[in-house]
Amino acid sequence: xxxxxxxxxxxxxxxxxxxxxxxxxxxxxxxxxxxxxxxxxxxxxxxxxxxxxxxxxxxxxxxxxxxxxxxxxxxxxxxxxxxxxxxxxxxxxxxxxxxxxxxxxxxxxxxxxxxxxxxxxxxxxxxxxxxxxxxxxxxxxxxxxxxxxxxxxxxxxxxxxxxxxxxxxxxxxxxxxxxxxxxxxxxxxxxxxxxxxxxxxxxxxxxxxxxxxxxxxxxxxxxxxxxxxxxxxxxxxxxxxxxxxxxxxxxxxxxxxxxxxxxx
Length: 264
Hints:
Elements: E1 4-10, E2 22-26, E3 38-39, H1 50-53, H2 56-65, E4 70-75, E5 78-80, H3 102-106, E6 113-117, E7 120-121, H4 127-134, H5 138-150, H6 155-162, E8 166-167, E9 173-176, H7 177-197, H8 205-208, H9 210-224, E10 229-233, E11 235-237, H10 243-256
Parallel strand pairs: 1-2, 1-4, 2-3, 6-10
Antiparallel strand pairs: 4-9, 5-11, 6-9, 7-8
């Protein structure tokens, strides 16, 4: 098939897939002395924005510099899981046996296909209310203003997506280079304008990484308006999730108005 690359966004040395489908990219390389992997501060890049944009600096690098017909983004601890994988992933398992590989991917991809992780469902929250309760709703309100001013054809989609109780999260996807270009040309001007309009002077390091979080929702807005064939692929999350802590923080945010101060 035509050339496909999945970049693995990482900021540290990690256990990674070994097949040529996967390209580890050190995000935030502009401020990172680690001498490993392909760095996101080569060619045309926004690596210095990593403290605010998280894995999106890797996405921007791939958009501007990566030569492939299909491009995807995964993370050092989150991958698309192969449907052929058997059993539950353990720390000492062969990662290559669990992640999506070229032969399976070949059967899925077309120029109009976008592969996304299985939807995350919030059930008792909309995407807007969940963000507003856990983080800062001003981020989404200002984003709406930008879309209303600059991309009014997407305003209905934005409002509709904000009321959904589920969405495709984690900034994970695989699509053709053409579609990725369309998405990035749409996404990054919104985020750059949002950065101009927000006062982040007193934000903590956790709060400052807002653009990666806002983009998770914006991806759903963009996808809402595209005539693409959406394929959901299972998510492989490496490491153990502390579900008690995660659910407790979720409920405290909804009912006690306690904002998130860390990732889970």
